[in-house]
Amino acid sequence: MKFSFSKNALINEISIAQEFTGRNAASALSSVSLIAENGELLIKAADRKMNFQARIPVDVQEEGTATVFCSRLMTILASLPDGDIEFEIQNSDNLNEAVIKHTTKKIRYKIRCRDEAVEIPEIEDAAFFDVPAKDFKEMILHTAYAVSTDEKRYFLNGVFFEKDDENLVLVATDSRRLALDERPIFGEVSDFSSIIVQPKILNIVAKHANDEGAISIAANDRIITFKFSNYVLSANLTDGTFPNYRRVIPENQPHKFIADFGEFSDAVKRINVMGDAGKMFFDITPGVLSVHANGEQGEAREEIPCEYADESITIAINPKYIEDALKVMDCGKIAFEFSEALRGITLRPEPAESYFNILMPMQQG
User: Fold this and answer.
1) Cα–Cα distance between 293 and 304 in angstroms, integer?
2) Residue whose C-alpha is closest to residue 216's, from 136, 142, 121
3) DSSP-assigned letters across all residues of 59-88
4) Which among 333, 275, 277 has a CA at the least distance from the CA of 304?
5) Residue 73, CB half-sphere, CA atoms under 13 Å: how many?
6) Which of these, 136, 131, 138, lies nearest to 330 by C-alpha position?
């Protein structure tokens, strides 16, 4: 096996492959396989739950396959000067070694190869459908942060995908908050079974997919696969039954205030400096919103104007839930809808967009 390539053409792909591998050199799950054939290099990496494939053009002098420690290969590539690099497999004492050298400078590395190649399961009996990349990335942003980290409730450790007519619905919840984004991007897709997708693969897709074009998605009862650019990413689905999230969405919230998003977000951040008790209070009165928190060392309060004309009320919320929701919002104004002090509140852009958050208030005492 022998091929040459531009350093910058490969280093980006290996850096992504690292997100799919472990850091233990003794483990096969820390490896990356390189398959040189037909003028291309196929790169494969996998852990127990996710898989990565990418193709880039290279100058293949001799076809073949090599499997090496991914982190070490990345370190070598990062240390080399820009320019063309040569990769060749040599056998020494019945051991295969990868020789990596710069074509114009006297720099040479040797790393031992593994015998076993990275194996990636193929998805079967599932048709791909396309979704606009920008929309899908935004849907991931608006939901994935809210998944539960409680491993005992593993069915909440992922983002729920559901088809509702022509709409794709993404939902995440940890039982104290819920994030939902729903958009009409299914088009002519007639059949799609509900699934639970781990957030790590979704965040990787959102990180590396361009906003332009489409992302192709296919899923069966075990695996979901994403195709975009020169990548094929896949992941095991989460077993279990996602709860009926629609029961959590309030049917009637007769009260709401509207505030400038920047003013509201800044106030929450400033007040949370003193919020080491893990509770933030919102005193809602006609025309004025007062945000305050008490900590062991003191208290903080800030008032901002708001559009509100109903009776005064105080609502207590976990400030982390508020801040997490605000981080993924991009709007000029924000709406805060509610019915009672201890019933779920809806946090959403004003005017309403495709996504919203449901937050459960806290006891005020």
Assistant:
1) 15
2) 136
3) EEEE-EEEEEEHHHHHHHHHHSPSSEEEEE
4) 333
5) 32
6) 138
Neighbours of 135 (CB within 10 A): 18
- State how far the Cα of 118 lies from the Cα of 157, in Å rounded to an integer: 27
Beta bridge partners of 199: none
pTM of the model: 0.93
| CA nearest neighbour of 205 among 154, 156, 161 | 161
How is residue 281 written in tokens?
A: 């209070």
pLDDT at residue 24, rounded to an integer: 66
Decide: 237 and 218 in contact? Cβ < 8 Å.
no
Higher-confidence residue of 22 and 40: namely: 40
89 is written with which tokens? 């497999």
CA dist 65 to 10, 44, 117, 126, Å? 16, 11, 8, 29
* pLDDT category of residue 336 using cuts at 50, 70 and 90: very high
pLDDT of 274 reads 82
User: What does the DSSP 8-state code read for residue 125?
Assistant: S
Is there a cis peptide before residue 351, judged by omega within 30 degrees of 0?
Answer: yes
Residue 211: other Cβ atoms inside 10 A: 10
Q: What is the mean pLDDT of the chain?
A: 93
Task: Determine which of 7-21, 22-36, 129-143, 304-318 has the lowest per-residue pLDDT on average.
Answer: 22-36
Decide if 233 contacts 245 (C-beta within 8 A): no
Distances (CA, A) of 252 to 89, 214, 256: 67, 37, 11
Of 265, 362, 263, 270, the residue nearest 322 (C-alpha)? 265
